[in-house]
Design goal:
This protein is mostly beta strands and 361 residues long. The protein has one domain (2-360): Porin (Beta Barrel), CATH 2.40.160.10. The chain is built from five helices and 16 strands. The protein has helices at 2-18, 25-31, 50-58, 65-69, 171-176, and strands spanning 81-95, 102-119, 123-132, 137-147, 150-157, 184-193, 196-203, 217-225, 229-238, 245-256, 259-270, 278-292, 295-305, 315-324, 330-340, 351-360. Strands 1-2-3-4-5-6-7-8-9-10-11-12-13-14-15-16 form a 16-stranded antiparallel beta barrel. Strand 12 and strand 13 (295-305) form a beta hairpin. Mean pLDDT is 89; it is low at 2-22.
Length: 361
């Protein structure tokens, strides 16, 4: 990946010259908290809690609301209604071998969240709607019931499995098929212990489409948490007429000074392919370096083996991203994303340089 690392070096030089974040699991690793501390969804992602909003507006940014722009805002409309949202837009240069480079503006998404607290700390209706581009698409819509350390929810939801990364294109999210584009209809039960959590979901296994057989999908995620590190395991089994699919994985996080580390490895056994069962591996590692307040450097690497029985079909992916949080509700990301696959497939060897604006509340 020599050309890939040359591009990464170029981005590093840009970052050095420039001056001395959706769900981002490294925030949880840095603070030592669970994902449920920052998000309404107990398994992470989506609308932020009051703590999550306070962290984003007063800790993450170069300047907080209290320093210049008034009091912090937690999305509260009235006692029972709270809202939130994410908007992302990109400028991307794409380099595909044997083709002309492209440079384009991409309106990635506009997502709104609605939380209705019918009974405080007990019964909540929650909605996650992707409004654009294209028509509106419901991602999550469920009733959430809480009692002591237990929770249960029913409706459409993101399934518990591994790290819930913002970047759905990472191999661990694409290969597993569990990401922000594939919620499912079902029920979930969870327990929050002082040093960990566990969730079990039973769903249709159709990624939100209509049920087409009697089989169901079972997803389970457990995590043990300490102040500076955490480790967990995931399991998923989809009983489908087209062929059973089973996944198991491990994931971990570690804080070492200013660096927050993430890692995940998943093994997938899939019988739904027309040519027979395939065994796949997907691996992910990421380091987030807190350069100073409001500045984060993200370095990530992904590896994917789409068929364990075939040699030299592996794919690699490396990313380097500088994240700047200059003001509350605002994030800029400048980065390079580099891919390497089999030489005969140009689209497995795409390189990208991008600038993203992310507005969140």
């Amino acid at each position: 990946m020599r050309s890939a690392f040359n591009l990464i070096l170029c981005v590093l030089l840009i970052i050095a010259w420039a001056g001395p974040l959706h769900a981002e699991p490294w925030f949880a690793v840095e603070t030592g908290h669970k994902c449920a501390a920052c998000h309404v969804n107990p398994t992470g992602g989506g609308k932020r809690t009051a703590y999550g909003n306070a962290f984003a507006q007063m800790v993450l940014t170069q300047r907080s609301l209290g320093e210049q722009w008034g009091e912090f805002w937690d999305g509260r409309i009235d006692k029972r209604v709270r809202v939130g949202g994410d908007v992302r837009a990109n400028l991307t240069e794409t380099r595909i071998p044997n083709q002309e480079n492209s440079f384009q503006y991409d309106f990635e998404e506009a997502v709104v969240y609605l939380e209705l607290r019918l009974i405080e700390d007990m019964l909540t209706f929650y909605f996650d709607e992707r409004m654009a581009p294209g028509g509106a698409v419901n991602r999550e819509a469920y009733a959430l019931f809480r009692h002591a350390n237990w929770h249960a929810k029913a409706g459409r939801m993101f399934l518990p499995f591994g790290w819930r990364l913002e970047d759905d294109s990472e191999f661990i999210r694409q290969a597993s098929g569990i990401n922000y584009a594939t919620p499912d209809d079902g029920i979930e039960f969870g327990y929050e212990a002082p040093r960990g959590s566990v969730q079990l979901a039973i769903s249709n296994g159709t990624a939100g489409a209509g049920e087409n057989d009697r089989g169901k999908q079972y997803s389970m995620r457990g995590e043990y948490i300490r102040n500076k590190w955490r480790a967990g395991a995931s399991f998923n089994f989809n009983d489908a007429d087209a062929g059973d699919r089973q996944m198991q994985g491990v994931f971990a996080g570690l804080r070492t000074g200013r660096i927050n580390w993430l890692a995940e490895a998943d093994f997938i056994s899939d019988e739904s392919f027309s040519d027979g069962k395939r065994e796949q591996w997907a691996v992910f590692a990421e380091a987030n370096v807190r350069l100073r307040r409001g500045h984060n450097l993200k370095v990530s690497y992904g590896w994917f083996d789409p068929d364990d029985n075939i040699d030299e079909d592996e794919r690699e992916r490396a990313s380097l991203v500088w994240e700047l949080f200059p003001l509350p509700f605002t994030q800029f990301s400048l980065g390079a994303r580099l891919n390497e696959g089999i030489p005969q497939n140009d689209f497995q060897n795409i390189d990208e340089i991008f600038l993203q604006l992310h507005l969140f509340f």
